[in-house]
């Protein structure tokens, strides 16, 4: 499917005329992360009712995305060092195990913005280190 066809479908359901760059930027981010290259990180922000959630929601059931409502400084590596016995009967709390080959979508960027500077630095540092395959929980 060509981009203009995708855009036409989105425009049937959403008013995107005032946010024309959003859809190609989002889809470009997903496609760029398929490449054998450095990851592409994109933070989308915009005023309320600008269709951000609806457009990103189109990836909810995608095998290429993992969608979460919010994140914390420890979301990526929470309990990453627990052994199998300690994890028995528990859901894997770490985002890392769910992100391999996927794009992380955080629905509410407010959770990132409202973090303390140290917590935000920790979160983004863990993302960078995770790409290198070296994240450890403290």
Description:
By secondary structure, the protein is mainly α. It has two domains: 1-58, no CATH class; 61-138, no CATH class. Helix content is 40%, strand content 6%. It has helices at residues 3-13, 22-32, 52-57, 84-87, 96-99, 110-113, 117-131; strands at residues 65-68, 103-106. The chain has a two-stranded parallel sheet. The longest helix has 15 residues, at 117-131. The chain is globular, with a radius of gyration of 17 Å. It starts with a helix and ends in a 7-residue tail after the last helix. 7% of the residues are buried.
For the biggest β-sheet, the strand order reads: 1-2
Give the tally of β-strands: 2
What's the domain count? 2
Structural class: mainly alpha
Summary?
By secondary structure, this protein is mainly alpha-helical.
What topology emerges from the helices and strands here?
Layout: H1 3-13, H2 22-32, H3 52-57, E1 65-68, H4 84-87, H5 96-99, E2 103-106, H6 110-113, H7 117-131
Parallel strand pairs: 1-2
Features:
single chain, 138 residues, mainly alpha, 2 domains, two-stranded parallel ribbon, 2 strands, globular
């Amino acid at each position: 499917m060509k981009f203009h066809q995708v855009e036409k479908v989105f425009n049937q359901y959403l008013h995107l005329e005032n946010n024309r760059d959003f859809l190609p930027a989002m889809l470009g981010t997903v496609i760029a992360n398929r490449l054998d290259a450095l990851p592409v990180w994109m933070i989308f922000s915009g005023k309320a009712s600008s269709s951000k959630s609806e457009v990103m929601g189109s990836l909810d059931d995608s095998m290429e995305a993992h969608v979460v409502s919010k994140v914390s400084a420890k979301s990526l590596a929470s309990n990453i060092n627990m052994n199998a016995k300690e994890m028995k009967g528990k859901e894997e709390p770490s985002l890392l195990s769910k992100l391999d080959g996927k794009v992380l979508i955080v629905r509410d960027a407010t959770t990132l913005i409202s973090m303390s500077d140290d917590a935000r630095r920790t979160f983004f540092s863990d993302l960078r280190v995770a790409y290198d395959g070296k994240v450890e929980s403290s």
